[in-house]
Design goal:
alpha/beta; Rossmann fold; 5 strands; binds flavin mononucleotide
């Protein structure tokens, strides 16, 4: 157990409408791994939050701007994102890419530089579930590419991605190899 002062903060963004779905199951196992390695973990169910779409007003790109002009629940999420050492993005594949809720959240991260210095200097974990048996045919690869390109652009470090096929909520738990990989990713995020 690491000492309290050096405990890493891991913030999990649950991007599925299903609180007990497959991406949430992967995220839960990542959280277990991170906590077992001494991290402090917080999970946010973003569908349950008022997160509006980016208005593309660009005011947040002014270095003197106080922050995002949209007064919704992202105002509380921005400081958490800036403070965390690691983020986990958990999303199902919806129509061959990440879920709409996850994309809403990502677009709003445009304003994150107004909430801290080097706010993207994070370790990133990604968890993706999809219904097709094939990662390419499912569209999971599109989500993977989008995360790779986005986090490369902002200089964040993707520590690992876990992804697998399951249709019904919770079925992914039967994939023990994948669940073990999720736990290992969680431990890595706590370092
Ligand atoms: C609106 C919607 C769109 C979906 N689109 C896809 C898709 O494009 N490709 C795919 O493989 N599965 C698709 N699925 C299936 C989900 O990705 C699959 O059930 C996944 O495990 C759900 O994860 P969750 O339990 O975390 O929500 C879709 C499901 C829904 C509800």
């Amino acid at each position: 157990m690491s000492d309290v002062k050096n405990r890493k903060k891991v913030l999990i963004l649950l991007g599925s409408p299903r609180k007990n779905g497959n991406s949430a199951a992967l995220a839960e196992r990542i959280a277990a791994g991170a906590e077992s390695a001494g991290a402090e973990v917080e999970s946010l169910f973003i569908l349950g939050m008022d997160i509006k779409p980016c208005r593309a007003c660009w005011s947040c790109q002014n270095p003197d701007a106080p922050g995002c002009v949209i007064k919704d629940d992202m105002q509380a999420v921005f400081p958490k994102l800036a403070e965390a050492d690691a983020w986990v993005i958990a999303t199902p594949v919806h129509w061959f890419n990440m879920s709409a809720q996850t994309k809403l959240w990502m677009d709003r991260c445009f304003a994150l530089p107004r909430y801290g210095k080097n706010p993207f200097r994070k370790k990133i974990g990604v968890a993706i579930s999809y219904g097709d048996t094939d990662a390419v045919a499912s569209g999971a690869v599109n989500a993977i590419r989008c995360f790779q390109d986005s986090f490369k652009y902002v200089g964040a470090d993707i520590a690992g991605m876990v992804y697998g096929s399951a249709l019904e909520a919770g079925d992914i738990r039967r994939n023990e190899e994948l669940m073990a990989a999720a736990e290992a990713l969680g431990r890595q995020l706590a370092l």
